[in-house]
Structures are given as C-alpha cells and as structure tokens.
Amino acid sequence: MESKNFYITTPIYYVNGDPHVGSAYTTIAADVMARYKRTMGYDVYFLTGTDEHGQKVEETAKAKGMTPQEWTDLMAPRFVEMWKALNIKNDDFIRTTEERHKKAVKKILQTVYEKGDIYKGEYEGKYCVSCETFVPENQIVGEDQCPDCGKKLRMVKEESYFFRMSKYQDALLKHIDEHPDFILPRSRRNEVISFIKQGLQDLSISRNTFEWGIPIEFAPGHITYVWFDALTNYLTAVGYENNPEEFQKRWENGEVVHLLGKDIVRFHAIIWPCMLLSAGVKLPDKIVAHGWWTSEGEKMSKSKGNVVAPLEEVKKYGVDAFRYYLLREVSFGNDGDYSTKAIVTRINSDLANDLGNLLNRTLGMYKKYFGEEIVKTGEYEAIDLEAQKLFDEILVQVEDMMSRLEFSRALETIWKFISRMNKYIDETTPWLLIKDESKKERLATVMNMLVESLYKVAVLVAPYMPEAGQKIWNQLGYNDDIEKALVENIKPWNILEVGHKLGNASPIFPRLEVEKEVKEKNPVNKDLKIENPINIDEFSKVEIKVVEILEADKVEGSDKLLKFKVNDGKNIRQIVSGIAKYYPEYKELVGKKVLAVVNLEPVVLRGELSQGMLLSSEEKKRIKLVEVDSSVKVGSKIK
Ligand code: ME8
C-alpha cells in the first residue's frame, strides 16, 4: 500500500546573515509541496530550521562582538518571522543548538563509531569556511580558492576523526542505480554518479581547533564537523533519538523528500546517504535540487546591493504574487533571474488577466443575470463535458508533475484550464443567452460551470497562493478554511447547492504598470524631512582630511582612550579618541587611512594633546573608524 505519510525538508540555513530570496525560494517550494500533499489527503510533516554551529557562524558572531550563542539567538527568530510573513506553514522549526538535536547527533555518532566506521587520523589540507567544506588538492582553483564559492581557502592541520565513507561507495552507487528518482533532476543525478565513480575518500568528521560545535563523547577535545551535525537534523525532528513510534511513521514508513539548492547536492546525495547506510537507517526517497537565482542578470551580492529582500517584494506585490512568480518563472532545477519586469509581467498576464478576469467576469455576470443565489443547473452540453474532461485530465497531470516537484509545469497546466474557461465565456456568450427567455436554463448551466470551475481552481492554486485561494472562495460565498479542502472533493461536477449565496466581488490582483515599477525599484523619498539643517557655508567651516595612522597607543590611566600619531599630508599630529573598547587590537589600525576633522581647537585629554578628531560611524553601540580606500591620497580634502 502506498504510504500516506509525507515528510518534506528544506536545508537548515546558516545564521551568518538574514534570509533572502534564495532561502525563501526553497522554503516556499517546500511549503507549496506540503500544502499540496495536504490537499491530497496526506499526513504531512514539514521541517525547516537553522544551522547554527561551525566556524563560519563562530567567526560571524565574533565580528559582531557577540558570543555564538547570543548571535544565533538573535538570528534564528529572524528566519521564523520571515517564514511567517511568506505564509510558510511548517510543522517544526529546528535549531541545531537545541538539546534534542545534540542528543540525536550523539546517537548517530555512537552508532557509526560502534559499527567500526570511525577512526582517528590527521587532517592536513585546505578548508573553505564559507562552504564549511574540506577541499581536496585536485579541486582547488585559482590562487588557493574554493571551487564552489571562489573564496580564499585556509590551511588546516589537526588531529581528526574520519568516517569510512569509501566503504559505502558501491552500496550507494547501487542504490542510485536502483532508484531512478532518488536524485532529481536527472542532470544532478548524473553529476553525482560520475563524482562517486572517481572514488570516495573518507571524510573528516571532527574538528579540534575551535569550539563552536557538538562535543564528541568518544573523542575528547573534538567537536562534530558541522555538516555531520547539520545533516542529522532531518532525523532529529522525527524522533530518531526520542520517539521510536514517530520515527517509524515519518521516516521508516513514510515518503521522505529533501529539497535543496544545487550548491549542496553532494552533501545530501553522497555524505548523507553514506551516514545513513552506516547507521542502518533507510535512505530518503528523493533528494531534489533546484537551480540558482540571480538578480537582474547578476550574481546577488551585498556589495552590489542587488540582493532581493523578500519582505520588500511582498510589500510591493503581495505574498501570493511573490510565491507564484518564483515557482512559475523557472522550471525547478534550472537557474533563474529575478527581475522586476518579469514579476510585473507575470502578475499582469497570469494573475490579473487570466485568473482575476475569470473571477470578475463570472461574478459580475452571475449577479446581473440571476442575483446573488445559485440557480439550478440544466443538462450539460458537449462544450461543458469537454471542459469537465479537460479538468479531469489536468488533475491527473498535476499529480504526476507534483510527484516530481515540477511546480512550473503544474501551474502552466492549471492555467490551461483557466484559459479554457475564459474562452468558454466567449464561446457560450452568456450576454446573448440572457436576451432569449427560452435559453434561461442554458444560461444557468453555463454560469454554474464557471462558478464551479473557480471553486475548483481555488483549491488547486491555494498551495501556491494561500491568500488568493481563500479570497476566491470567499467571493464565491464559501467561508470554510480552504487549507482543509481536499482535491478528492472537487473531482465531481454539479456540486453547487441551489440557493447558495455568492459573496462580494473585488479584484484580487490589480494590474501594475511595468515602466513605473521598474523605475520605482529604488524610489526616492521626496517627502524626506531634513533634521537640523545647515547651509553649505556652515558645512565648509569644518575641514575634513584623509589622514594616515602612523602609530597607535593606549593613553595611560584610561580604558577608553587611544592616542594616534597621524600624517595629514603636511604635518604629523596627535589625535586622542575614545574608541579603545572597540579596538582591542588597536595596533592593526597602523597604516590605515581614515578621516579626521583637522580644524578643531586643540584640547588636552588625560594629559595628552589632541589636535583633531577621527571620524567614526556608530551602529547599535558599535563604533568604527571611517576608513577610506588605500588609493586615496593622504591629505586629500573631503568636500
Ligand atoms: O548550505 N538561489 O546553508 P545556506 C537559490 N547550512 N537558492 C539559494 C540561493 C540562490 N541564490 N542562495 C541560497 C547551507 N539558496 C547549510 C545547509 S542542510 C543540512 C545544511 C538556498 O544558508 C538553497 O536552498 O548556505 C541553498 O541550498 C541554501 O539556500 C543554502 O543555505
């Protein structure tokens, strides 16, 4: 019997930065799949969460002046909030710093250890902190750079425990061979196979040169390699360590699907299955990798300022349109480019024109011809039966496509039916039928076909656009929760009750102007209020110059003050600054070019002469000197 338990996961995201369109994409896709499976009558468990250990998070926290725990406690809720704003209905949110997870990691490590699959050795080689991955010599690119992210690699030489991954090479190849849908899409599957065939090496699974990780019981002084820790989250959440019944139901007897980006396929399709083979746990059913998003044709990066912030998009276009666009615009698996023009075009053509018009026209005509209550349906004619048949076919196709997570094709297929029904209006010409009293019953059948189509379409689009689905239902006069609807119940036709009262119509997706939206991507606030304004003459009294720090020292007897000898292009002067707390490594400032006000009256602070002021920025109580590019000449005036 086919299992009716469906377990879907997203990667757990690193908390070194805020969630963005990339993490939103995977999470929305998983949410759509979870919602769709619920409408198909499955008992669904949908997991997402945060990956909180490792060197990268530890270093980010340090740079922010916090402990890793403080930092992760600050960041994890930002993911929870973002998912709420994107209408993500996950059943669980896991953080790898939770006790339940530490116990699960301990259990899998112990199991693999007792199996004889872990041995002590030494790792010497290159490591990419950004990807948290060991990079073998033959994969290094450029000048010691990571083949995946291009960042500079670090040398690591430390005692380490190794996992005998090589032992599982053949078993894994056999599994992939026997399960054609284990890794999707096909292109990724082939890539994984050829990688394994080059020969798997044993994997270093412990680190001992930093502390932010889960300690290993049989290896004092070592913490768990962050990927070994992170991958285990998928087991933790379904009771691997603490709830055998739940584990049996959700993992062993359920369908398990991992969604992820193409960047982390190897971790999921190689390391993870080997870990499970060693631990004697069933392998997941599907590992589905999607492509990469760029923004307006370029790689997203903070320095380019083109990172797509989901909440801003939602504010502009609404959460449904954002979700729809992401899943409709590119085939899952392919790369995609996020552009304002494309999202606006999608909203106008698919949502406002096709779906919105079908709803507005139908409700408008119904109320005009019959009032607010549903009238009796007559005999179906050929054109009605043909539309009904198309709907039956579409349900089968959508089910097939969704089983392979082909979101874009599934939407295209649903839209075939929406277009068909728009055309149906033009072909059945209700505005002519109303003129002929003998066609009243025919008109009722036509109009009911339309209302019923929308009722069904609402259920099909709700997993993608939960709010729009609900609104369509409400406008049709159905106030139940659409999330509880089942596809099974929308299969039969003629399900409207005579006398049912329609709701109020209002446009769900207003049309947008492409030109205006593109221009307003970075709208200027014309109503900006300038506080404490000064004029240009007043400003020009302040003389600011680029100075180079030649020496940096503590001021004796003070915790707060540092004294600097700086070159202002003409003279060497001394400046005292209250920034000691923010620069424990103040000697590193020597050689930096910074900005200084050079015409302040000299003062004496704690017995030290100060002949100017260094400029600094302040953000959340963190003070930083304003540094300038090393190519700017010392002594240059700031105007
Ligand atoms: O890799 N386009 O976390 P991560 C599409 N913690 N998807 C993108 C994307 C983009 N431009 N940028 C990010 C990790 N993603 C590990 C995972 S799982 C046991 C541990 C999405 O925060 C995509 O799903 O770097 C990618 O796989 C994931 O974010 C990486 O998130």
Summary of the model, kept short:
It contains 20 helices and 24 strands. It is an alpha/beta fold and 639 residues long.
Structural account:
The structure is a single chain. By secondary structure, the protein is of the alpha/beta class. The protein has 3 domains: 4-291, Rossmann fold (3-Layer(aba) Sandwich), CATH 3.40.50.620; 324-490, Orthogonal Bundle (Isoleucyl-tRNA Synthetase, Domain 1), CATH 1.10.730.10; 536-638, Nucleic acid-binding proteins (OB fold (Dihydrolipoamide Acetyltransferase, E2P), Beta Barrel), CATH 2.40.50. Helices cover 41% and strands 19% of the residues. It has 20 helices and 24 strands. The strands form 7 sheets. It has a 6-stranded parallel beta sheet, with helices on both faces. Strands 15, 16, 17, 18, 21 and 24 form a 6-stranded antiparallel beta sheet that branches. β22 (616-619) and β23 (622-625) form a beta hairpin. α12 packs across α13 (340-370), α13 runs antiparallel to α17 (440-461) and α15 packs antiparallel against α17 (440-461). The protein is flat. The model has no long low-confidence stretch (mean pLDDT 94).
Query: How many E strands?
Result: 24
CATH superfamily of the largest domain: HUPs
Mean of the pLDDT scores?
94
The number of domains is 3
List low-pLDDT spans.
Answer: none
Helical residues, percent: 40-55%
The largest pleated sheet is described as: 6 strands, parallel
In one word, what is the shape? flat
Across the major sheet, the strand order is 3-2-1-11-12-7
End-to-end separation in angstroms reads 76 Å
CATH topology of the largest domain: Rossmann fold
